[in-house]
Design goal:
By secondary structure, this protein is an alpha/beta fold. The chain has 13 helices and seven strands. Strands 3-2-4-1-5-6-7 form a seven-stranded parallel beta sheet, with helices on both faces. The radius of gyration is 21 Å and the shape is globular.
Length: about 300
């Protein structure tokens, strides 16, 4: 990519030109010509808060973000990265979060981008890191990331977002099991949605009593009761998001930088892997009577 071209792209991104921003994200996501020039010359503003929303399917993450956008979108510029699952059979993705947030598409302060996981585990797209850095090079006040909603495997968001909001509901199965799950341990803020449910007080009490099991920290995760469909509790939730951002430690930011570097290195190492070639070779090798997957992988990795 000619230097004069990507220099203009970087400047347009900085000024918040959404059409150029969208094209730059597509270039980075698909690794088309010039994507390295864009990434390596980004002027990233690390002071922009990155807030991750995670939780089990049906907890109301999209609806809660939608309510937050309605609350802050009039005065603040917000970018939303909504990660949707990719089908392992068709490689397609519904990108349904765009449908849930469509009322905000004509708001110039709000930018919504869907990403497919493309088979990546952990609740995030393999390209989420780069896309968030592109957004952080623009003029947004906040960046929201919504993970796919696959339950306890979504802890990867803690390695990218400075503030992690875990969205829970009081009737989503075994309450005790929910309190023990790994996804609970990553929360900076607990948002208990559907707070009009009859068991809300019991659930919140159990959640608060479990906080002493967490390692000692200068920040105690608050438990916010919300009703996303009506906007109840959203103002308090946003207030706590802002409080946590300003209370953030430099140690956590450096740890996040380390996690991002590790994710990028893993993605870089995996680039040369041809999945279709591996599939065909594995199909042939597995027909052998003495087939052993671990010997196959050792031999394959040594190529």
């Amino acid at each position: 990519m000619r230097k004069i071209y990507w220099v203009q792209i970087i400047e347009d991104i900085k000024q918040g030109k959404q059409r150029i921003l969208a094209k730059a994200i597509t270039t980075v996501e698909n690794e088309t010509e010039g994507y390295k020039d864009i990434l390596q010359n980004l002027q990233i503003n690390f002071s922009i808060p990155v807030v991750g929303f995670t939780g089990a399917p049906g907890a109301g993450k999209s609806t809660l973000i939608n309510a937050l956008l309605a609350h802050v979108g009039k005065e603040k510029r917000v970018a939303v990265v909504a990660v949707d699952p990719t089908s392992p059979f068709t490689n397609g993705s519904l990108l349904g979060d765009r449908l849930r947030m469509n009322e905000h598409y004509h708001n110039p302060n709000i930018f919504i981008r869907s990403l497919a996981t493309r088979g990546n585990l952990g609740g995030l797209s393999a390209k989420t890191i780069e896309v968030v850095d592109v957004l952080r090079s623009s003029n947004f006040d906040f960046i929201f990331i919504e993970t796919v909603g696959v339950g306890q495997s979504e802890v990867e968001i803690a390695g990218l977002a400075e503030t992690t909001v875990v969205v829970l509901t009081p009737m989503a199965g075994d309450d005790v099991q929910a309190l023990k799950s790994g996804i609970i341990e990553i929360a900076d803020i607990y948002a208990v949605n559907k707070a009009d449910h009859e068991s809300i007080d019991t659930f919140v009490k159990q959640l608060n009593s479990s906080l002493h099991l967490r390692p000692p920290s200068a920040w105690t995760p608050p438990v916010i009761k919300c009703i996303a469909t009506t906007g109840d509790g959203v103002e308090e939730l946003f207030k706590k998001i802002q409080e946590h951002h300003f209370a953030g430690s430099s140690i956590k930011r450096k740890n996040i930088l380390l996690e991002k570097a590790l994710m990028l290195l893993v993605a870089h190492k995996m680039k040369g892997l041809d999945k279709e070639k591996l599939k065909s070779q594995l199909a042939v090798a597995s027909d052998a009577k003495e087939f052993n997957l671990y010997r196959f992988i050792e031999k394959y990795a040594g190529k």
